[in-house]
Specification:
Helix content is 77%, strand content 0%. InterPro entries: Mpo1-like (IPR009305).
Length: 158
């Protein structure tokens, strides 16, 4: 990708939206991406429990909820991440039938994923309808070209 396209919002959104056009896949992303970001931040912080473990005296006095929550977060964050990433790949494989952008450019996917979710919500709320229309036209053309290439590849295999 050329440097001139790096900060081109329309181009970047087109690249990402071309792999995220199926409504079910978009819904999966709207759910999973924010949670993946959250779990990555929690995991990345790696500062121990999110809620400090209380002292023995606090536990003896009945303050077990913070202890339970601390243990739950330690268990849930890595497992939640695996479940969410599975949903992410199922969305692409089953509904989109196209590889995720993650397989082409990990950094681009990590940056654009959360950004894409934000723009999808903004578009849904009516923000910049002209940009949304322009992107939809570009995406439909790209998907048609992708499907034509795939059909040609499959025909050559037969």
């Amino acid at each position: 990708m050329s440097h001139s396209k790096l900060l081109d919002l329309k181009y970047q959104m087109f690249q990402y939206a071309s792999h995220h056009n199926n409504p079910v896949n978009v819904g999966i992303h709207l759910t999973c991406i924010p949670l993946i970001v959250w779990s990555a931040l929690v995991w990345g912080a790696n500062t121990g429990p999110l809620i400090a473990s209380p002292s023995v005296a606090a536990v003896a006095s009945g303050a077990t909820l913070p202890v339970a929550l601390s243990k739950l977060f330690k268990f849930a964050v890595p497992n939640l991440s695996m479940i969410l990433m599975t949903g992410y790949f199922v969305g692409h494989g089953v509904f989109e039938k196209r590889a995720p952008k993650l397989t082409e450019n990990l950094v681009q996917a990590a940056v654009l994923g959360p950004y894409f979710v934000l723009w999808e919500v903004l578009f849904f709320l009516g923000y910049r309808p002209q940009l949304k229309k322009e992107l939809d036209v570009l995406v439909k053309a790209d998907i048609a070209a992708f499907r034509a290439r795939k059909a040609l590849e499959n025909k050559k295999k037969d």
